[in-house]
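Task 17 of the worksheet. Students: predict the tertiary structure of the chain below and write it out as structure tokens. Keep your answer in the requested format; marks are given for formatting as well as content.
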Amino acid sequence: MSNKSFRIKAITLILIFASLWLCSAGRLFYLQIMKSREISKRMRAEQLRHLLTEAKRGDILDRKGRVLATDLKMYTLYAKRDLIEDPQKTADALSNYGIGSKSRLESLLKD
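Model answer:
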């Protein structure tokens, strides 16, 4: 193989790699500079989805199959005492919803 054909092949190979590098650099520039806002909007839309998932835990059983512990749905209720004008009336209204007895609710709202 002559020295001249080797040079031509080497220069051709270098030009191919340089053009591939320039294409890659151009694509990176286009994506990171020119399209960055559009891509970040699309990314946020894909990443920030609100999915309601209800976690239902299984029962804990003994070896005979009897339930030792189970998952219960619990609710929390709180009151700001300084905003309640009439604790008796509020306790009466809450007791109608089955939250507790009127006397217990009234004592909780007063104390």
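Marker's comment: The first helix runs from residue 3 to 34. The two ends are 102 Å apart (CA to CA).
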